[in-house]
Structures are given as C-alpha cells and as structure tokens.
Specification:
Largest sheet: 5 strands, mixed
Strand order of the largest sheet: 2-1-3-4-5
Distance between the termini: 31 Å
Strand content: 15-25%
C-alpha cells in the first residue's frame, strides 16, 4: 500500500483517511464480520481464523489465497464476534492478540 497525504479542511482541521459508518438499526458492526460468508468453510478446514482490521485486508488476503480471514468493520473485536467465530474454529489470530475459542477469553 501507499501512505496517503493528510488533507486540511478550509477551517484548518485535518480530514480522516477513513470515515467509519455508524451503527444503525439494520447494521450492527459489533455483531458482524466482513467476509465470513466466504471464509467459513476455509476456517473450518484450517480450524483457525485470522481476524484483520478492515475490509480491504480481507479482500487482499483472499486474492492471494489466504482464505480463512475475516475483518472487523471499524470496531474492536467483540465477545459476540468471538462467539460467532467459535462455531467454526478453536484458534484465532489477529494483529492485536492470539485467542483460543474454547472459552472465548483472550489469552
């Protein structure tokens, strides 16, 4: 990837590189994982899941045949997401932590 320059508004404030969409009654970021629909059979086969930070990371991973990858969407990894992943694998890895799905507790 490449680093994008920071841009200033007319009032001098710096714009964010990314703007996360808000939670809505139909879209609960803390409950879903991007790419799970495509990754679940590979997660089951590997008995492991890799959790990345964003949607682009998931897409790029799948493009290079690393298919047991899912992404959070602008949130921290939640207990609800861990319980969802526990259905498919016993082990998981993210850039922040290594966790074991048996108890859904961080090690």
């Amino acid at each position: 990837g490449r680093i994008l320059p920071e841009f200033e508004n007319l009032d001098g404030r710096i714009n964010a590189k990314y703007v996360n969409s808000p939670e809505t009654p139909l879209f609960h970021k803390s409950k879903i994982l991007f790419g799970l629909d495509k990754a679940k059979k590979y997660i089951t086969t590997e008995n492991m899941v890799v959790v990345v930070e964003g949607q682009v990371d998931v897409i790029l991973s799948h493009q290079i045949a690393v298919k047991h990858v899912v992404g959070v969407s602008g949130t921290a990894l939640t207990e609800e997401q861990l319980l969802l992943l526990k259905r498919y694998a016993e082990r998981g890895f993210s850039s922040f932590i290594i966790f074991k799905m048996v108890s859904c507790r961080f090690l």
